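Hi support team,

I submitted a single chain yesterday and got back a structure, but I'm not sure I'm reading the token output correctly. Could someone confirm the output below corresponds to the sequence I sent? I've pasted both exactly as they appear in my results page.

Thanks,
R.
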Amino acid sequence: MDRPRVLVVEDDGDLRDLLVETLTRWGYHVTSAGNGTEALTLLEGRLFDVALLDIWLPGKDGLQLLEEIKRHDSTLEVVMMTGDPLVSTAVQALKAGAYDYLIKPLNLEELQPLMRQLIERRFLRQEVGSLRARLGRELAERELVGTSPQMLEVKQTIASVANSDSPVLIEGESGTGKELVAAAIHGQSPRATGPFVPVNCGAIPAELMESEFFGHVRGAFSGAVADALGLVRAAQGGTLFLDEVAELPTALQAKLLRVLQEKEVRPVGSAKTHSVNVRIIAATNRDLEAAVASGRFRQDLYYRINVVRIVVPPLRARKDEIPALVTHFLRRFNARFHRSVTGLAPAAKAALMAYDFPGNVRELENLIERAYAFGAHDEITRENLPALAAAPAPAAAAAGEELPTLEAAERDLIRRALARYDNDKEKAARALGLTVRTLYRRINKFRLA
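Hi R., thanks for writing in. Yes, this is the structure output for that exact sequence:
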């Protein structure tokens, strides 16, 4: 592994030489400059992991240099050094993006653990970015299976919009593969080497949403022991995928709209804004137009994210694709379980083709994986699909039979889903095409707890 790269900017030659010698002895690759102009020239030609800046420099002072460094590389960790420890100057430096500041004469015993902490922080950021980028590639590599007219239209739209930076709104029931569509757009775009950051908007507690999305500075609230980038800045240069976007609280919708309009974010507790270069792809399983009409979703944000609209069809509307999807899943699970399952027994295929899959492709994938757990080897049999055996067949209404009210039917459907999945709220919500939060509201409404 390359040695961590440190830039020292200090006009005092003796202190500069001491820092270069000490940091080199500690294992860092050190470059030094005596003023801000020299430092900016060095920054144009190479990347650094940490910068140590004197606040009082000839010409361009350290605070001005700090702002220019952050514009050049917002992730570079910066520590300020000062012999005149004014509180106002220190606060200004921290607000401008410095991680910490040290008082001269420097205590090298204090500097050494700080340097280790900064390098570890920088390394973790790079690892997270690498993992997110890899997640984007892996999702994009997961093939969008299907040759139905609806899926061909989806694929053609993906190919058409991938090269633009326009926001995309993906609509479809839960489990249809909206995240795969978003990842395919990212993977075919010029942003493919950047991070793909998927966010389930319905899974983040409302009180943490602003910090999760926009980041925070150390000390912004109880428990904020370090700066946090936030999801928007974590997607810098790539794509931010907002799944279940209809679940965003109204207050956060306004702030997200500002991000789309101004291309900048302000972390919680900070007075400084950061420019962002991120493509937004949103998805929902709800009727956003109805949410706009009822006031639950901002109309201006709806128009912003609905520049390109893609509708992913439910599995019951393209049942002919079930065998191809099963073959796709068999390849993946054969590799994972080290087996050679070749296909479906006739009875198993008939059962799958007769089922309506309220959980869509995700439910089909779950059923096939469960078949492996139930011992499928040469082929998947009807016995390997016990969940289908328990599924009640839809009954035709007898002539003159009174239909239940919509509320009664919804209550009964939720009760059956909870019973079928042993009260597992997440599985029941997926099967019903709801978010977990919405399912809990329905459970409370119908007193099914």
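A quick pointer for reading it: Residues 315-394+402-446 form a domain with the Helicase, Ruva Protein; domain 3 fold (CATH 1.10.8.60). Let us know if anything else looks off.

Best,
Support desk
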